[in-house]
Amino acid sequence: MDLFVDKPYQRMDGGKLDTSSSRSLRIAVSLPQLEPLAQVMRGKPAEATYIIQRYIAAGLPAHGHSLTFVGPRSFNDIVCTDDPQRPKPAPRTWSASRWFDLASKGAWRVQQWLGMPYLNVFSNYRLFDACLQCFPGHDLVYERNGLYRDGVAKACRRLKLPYVLYVEADDILEHDYMGKPITGLLRWRAKETMRYNLNSADCIICVSGPLKTHLITTWGVPGEKIVVFPNVADVQRFRPDPQARAEMRASLGITDQPLVLFVGAFYEWHDVATLLDAFAQVLAARPEARLVLVGEGSQRQAMMERAAGLGLTHAVQFTGFMAHTEIPRLVAAADIAAAPYPPMQHDLWLSPLKLFEYMASGTAIIASGVGQIAEVIQDGRNGLLVPPGDALAMAGALQRLIADAGLRTRLARQAREDAVRKHSWEHYLSRLERLFNAVIAGQPVDQI
Fold first, then answer.
1. Cross-strand partners of 203
2. Does residue 407 belong to any structural domain of this protein?
3. 163 three-class SS
4. Distance between CA 197 and CA 145 in Å, rounded?
5. How far apart are the C-alpha atoms of 276 and 270, rounded to whole Å?
6. What mean pLDDT comes out for the span 205-230?
7. Cβ–Cβ < 8 Å for 361, 331
8. I need a labelling partner for 435 at 20 to 30 A (CA). Which of 129, 268, 316, 336 fits?
9. Is residue 148 domain-shared with residue 292, that is, in the same domain?
10. End-to-end CA distance of the chain, in Å?
């Protein structure tokens, strides 16, 4: 049986997925910013979270639902549109008045005089007013949580509309981890808006089990209203593709050399440094091996300098940004795909999109055993796990896979099968539909 051949999407219990909903829904979608969604729809650079939202924006209408996007385009500009690429100003009433504008400017001048930061009070009133005008007639509101935002949740409470909150990370904790902590009144404001949204939500979607635990223990959210939706992959676009493999390898100047790939952002939580250190050890034994690193980020220049210091420049390529539409061809060209992460006190936001795209592509994976990654990748079954930050262990895993084509094939086939069965966007969207219908009906959501 060829495990690379797509099969009908299956539940883990073997039954067919119910991809239909009881009726077509009108769903209002609110994101912290709408322009990045429009950009990713045009193939422009965007964070992974907006790639996820793009799939939802395309997938739900394909299932017969209608979406309205409501959110900020700029500081004072709220839009309400069915097409993020063609934004229209949202209707507003009292927040569009002259007295409101004067009050907003006056309050900001007082805050500046007192040395206070901008607390997003008036911007939330604008959003609240726009939502009151745009939300009536919708069945449900879906919001991607953002810092200092509570206007959407307040409008849902006022209108008594079902409210689903998508939480990808504790943004306050993430800023702490990046060494850019939110402090003082801004931290208080961030906590107050986060707490209000969590309490207001009828259902909270989070991306990992550790994040669910954090929401329960730190924020006091009842566990029965939280569901875990890990990120997933488009298994039709990300798939084994011999033709794309040959073409992409030729464009990279690589023929039969072992090719290791990393796709991601060059930030603190992607441990490219350990991958480079490991690859230096590999290269000493396998000088024909090649490493391609895809992405941008604040640490990219430092990693280029590290590679040069290790004497790797002849064997390592930094491609910079590549459009997400090109990534499937690149992953198909790789022999090994790496997902390196450092030791973390908090791995709450870890549900890496690239991990599932690696799996769907049928590429052998080496990943750091942290957070949700250690649940998705079973060592020796559908990939290899190494301790986070351990260059020696990663080098050993790389050498093992380079030397054993049979092992690479077996791991890759199993990863592809797991992606098709459990981690596809079609699976995700079908589950999301069932969740939305349960929330609207006031039914329990924790078993969906």
1. 164
2. yes
3. strand
4. 8
5. 12
6. 94
7. yes
8. 129
9. no
10. 31
pLDDT in tens, 277-288: 999 999 999 999
From 284, 390, 398, select the one nearest 338 (Cα to Cα): 398
The number of C-alpha atoms within 13 Å of 383 and in the hemisphere containing its C-beta is: 31
What is the rounded CA–CA span in Å between residue 186 and residue 169? 18
Secondary structure class of 285 (helix, strand, coil): helix
> Tell me, what CATH number does 267's domain have?
3.40.50.2000
Q: What pLDDT does 346 receive? A: 59
Query: Whole-structure pTM over 0.85, yes or no?
Result: yes
C-alpha distance from residue 48 to each of 232, 265, 292, 358 (Å): 11, 9, 20, 14
> Locate tokens 């939110």: which residue?
182
**Alpha helices, DSSP H, located in 160-299:** 171-177, 184-200, 209-219, 242-251, 272-285
Q: Give the whole-angstrom CA distance, residue 2 versus residue 256.
A: 24
Distances (CA, A) of 377 to 94, 369, 372: 53, 8, 9
Per DSSP, helices labelled H in 78-183 are: 98-114, 121-134, 151-159, 171-177
Tell me the one-letter amino acid at 202. D
The reply to whether 173 and 247 lie within a common domain is: no
- Show the domain range for 365: 242-422
The number of domains in the chain is: 2
